[in-house]
């Protein structure tokens, strides 16, 4: 990953951006449905709260995290739903306070991990900056659901670079979610940030290539937009197939979004 301090600062900034979406909402708006079936705005913040609680525990109390992870079992979706309950039991103001507290605890704990020291996570230990980037992925995806529910257009920044790099690292998650074998080839990614900077990953001479705007790429890998509504270009059959499978998170892919589901192709 890029500079560890840069990732941590970006995580804080992205958390504040999502916080700003919900800070002044009415109780009615907290109950608005989001594009995620069955999830309201409150569900989205409850999920982020549970994720940041785990991240803070992983970095700050690894033994407690291992005990928690051991109890999750094979029912991933069931575990996700169960983790929401303690947060959804609260009224919106209390939920907001809990979300802020979980976020602050995780930010401090991740920043305090010594350089090069991995922390436990659900599948395998991760360097703290990589776990921070995973947190940014969660903030981006669930923040997008909230923004879509509220009809808000979010400002894209070059902080997306960390999510792009995380998605490149986890490029095979979409295959794993579908019990498919990833192709035995390397991809070239050439992704253009909001500032116009081009972020390049993978061999320059790779035959399988993916290019396009960073915002579109992040919407794709969080499955918040259908590929048909995004300005991403694939060269090569494997790269083209990847655009249908891409996801930067573990667990079931979910239904994703349908072509033309939103009024405009971008948020």
Keywords for this entry:
alpha+beta, 267 residues, two-stranded antiparallel ribbon, 4-stranded mixed sheet
Structure in words:
It is a single chain. The protein has 267 residues and is of the alpha+beta class. 53% of the residues lie in helices and 9% in strands. It is built from eleven helices and six strands. It has helices spanning 4-22, 27-30, 41-60, 62-70, 76-88, 92-112, 128-150, 160-169, 173-177, 214-221, 237-245; strands spanning 118-119, 126-127, 187-192, 198-201, 208-213, 233-235. It has a four-stranded mixed beta sheet with strand order 4-3-5-6. A hairpin with a 5-residue loop joins β3 and β4 (198-201). α1 packs antiparallel against α6 (92-112). The longest helix is centred in the middle third of the chain and has 23 residues, at 128-150. The chain is globular and about 50 Å long.
H and E string: HHHHHHEEHHHEEEHEH
* Percentage of residues in helical conformation: 40-55%
Instruction: Work out the number of β strands.
Output: 6
Structural class of the secondary elements? alpha+beta
N- and C-termini, Cα separation: 27 Å
Q: Quick check: average pLDDT?
A: 93
Beta-strand share of residues: 5-15%
- Poorly predicted ranges: none
Largest sheet: 4 strands, mixed
In angstroms, what is the radius of gyration? 18 Å
Number of helices: 11
- What overall geometry do the principal axes of the alpha carbons give? globular
Strand arrangement, major sheet? 4-3-5-6
């Amino acid at each position: 990953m890029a500079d560890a301090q840069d990732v941590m600062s970006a995580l804080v900034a992205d958390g504040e951006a999502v916080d700003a979406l919900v800070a002044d909402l009415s109780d009615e708006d907290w109950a608005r449905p989001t594009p995620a079936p069955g999830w309201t705005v409150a569900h989205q913040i409850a999920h982020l709260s549970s994720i940041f609680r785990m991240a803070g525990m992983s970095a700050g109390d690894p033994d407690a995290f291992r005990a928690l992870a051991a109890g999750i079992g094979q029912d991933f979706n069931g575990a996700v739903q169960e983790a929401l309950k303690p947060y959804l039991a609260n009224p919106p103001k209390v939920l907001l306070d809990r979300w802020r507290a979980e976020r602050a605890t995780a930010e401090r704990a991740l920043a305090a991990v010594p350089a090069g020291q991995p922390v436990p996570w659900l599948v395998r230990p991760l360097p703290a900056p990589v776990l921070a980037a995973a947190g940014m992925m969660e903030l981006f995806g669930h923040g997008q659901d909230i923004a879509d529910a509220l009809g808000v257009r979010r400002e894209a920044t070059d902080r997306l670079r960390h999510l792009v790099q995380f998605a490149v690292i986890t490029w095979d998650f979409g295959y794993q979610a579908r019990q498919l074998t990833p192709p035995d080839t390397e991809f070239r990614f050439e992704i253009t940030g909001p500032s116009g900077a081009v972020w390049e990953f993978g061999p320059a001479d790779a035959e399988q290539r993916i290019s396009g705007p960073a915002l579109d790429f992040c919407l794709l890998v969080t499955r918040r937009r259908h590929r048909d509504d995004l300005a991403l270009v694939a060269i090569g059959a494997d790269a083209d197939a990847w655009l249908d499978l891409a996801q930067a998170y573990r667990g079931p892919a979910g239904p994703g979004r349908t072509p033309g589901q939103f009024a405009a192709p971008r948020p």
